[in-house]
Automatic annotation (TrEMBL):
Residues 4-209 form the Nucleotidyl transferase domain. Pfam families: NTP_transferase. One of its GO terms (biological process) is O antigen biosynthetic process. Its EC number is 2.7.7.33. GO terms for molecular function: glucose-1-phosphate cytidylyltransferase activity. Keywords: Nucleotidyltransferase, Transferase. It comes from Pelagicoccus enzymogenes. This is Glucose-1-phosphate cytidylyltransferase. It is an enzyme of class 2 (transferase).
């Protein structure tokens, strides 16, 4: 099954990093978060990737062009100007990097991938969030209900301490409780090709009209994932993920357990 990853946004809330690189290329543990996402999919057997590029897409292209050379051996004949690669340690991934426009919105990027995805079921996620969602169980859930779209619903931790009161007396204090307000869109979609018909064009935001219409028509189902999920919207988020990685406690690194 093909995996589509949207990696074209500007990432303005992480401007400390995204001034010089696209957000999916911000590193966690010395690797771009995009690599972490792809590694999670590949660990479950999905290694056919279609990455929708936009802002600073050339940075992502250069990374993957250089990947094999940097991971393996090079024999360089200076006089002839030839370069031979060998002993590559790169993963067995098929990576397709698709230019989808600088100002294109999320729905438009998905629509532009249609010629590459074809008329088949596919997976979709954003290039800035990691999770330990069980992808095989996600797909089984999608197949079981027969609808056009499945979204992974998650409950992220709150950014601030939660308090419950009796008058002015604090009855309970939790520093990092799970979000009490309910489930949110965690991406990690499984989609049927008919969803392309729900997207009008470049200026369509996937999270607006298409998902709203799918829900209204009873074609959107939610796979509830109570485990780890974390997006990387801010420098604080980046530092949290880096801290988890450095401590050897990165829940999304499912390949470490495979």
């Amino acid at each position: 099954m093909k995996v589509a990853i949207l990696a074209g946004g500007v990432g303005s809330r992480l401007s400390e990093e995204t001034y010089v690189k696209p957000k999916p290329m911000v590193e966690i543990g010395g690797r771009p978060i995009l690599w972490h996402i792809m590694r999670h999919y590949a660990t479950s057997g999905f290694n056919d990737f279609y990455v929708a590029l936009g802002y600073k897409g050339e940075y992502i292209k250069k990374y993957f062009v250089d990947y094999c050379a940097l991971e393996g051996n090079l024999a360089i004949q200076l006089k002839e100007g030839t370069v031979a690669q060998s002993g590559s340690k790169g993963p067995d991934w098929n990576v397709n990097l698709i230019d989808t426009g600088i100002a294109t919105l999320t729905g438009g990027r998905i629509k532009r991938l249609q010629p590459h995805i074809g008329n088949e079921r596919f997976m979709l996620t954003w290039g800035d969030g990691v999770s330990n969602v069980d992808l095989q169980k996600l797909i089984e859930f999608h197949k079981s209900h027969g609808k056009l779209a499945t979204v992974t619903a998650v409950r992220p931790t709150a950014r601030f301490g939660h308090m419950e009161f009796d008058g002015d007396k604090v009855l309970e204090f939790s520093e990092k409780p799970q979000a009490a307000e309910g489930w949110i869109n965690g991406a990690f979609f499984v989609l049927e090709p008919e969803i392309f018909d729900f997207i009008e064009g470049d200026q369509t935001q996937w999270e607006k009209e298409p998902m709203e219409r799918l829900a209204k028509e009873g074609q959107l189902m939610a796979y509830r994932h109570p485990g780890f999920w974390q997006c990387m919207d801010t420098l604080r988020d980046k530092q949290l993920l880096e801290s988890l990685w450095q401590k050897g406690n990165a829940p999304w690194a499912t390949w470490e357990k495979a």
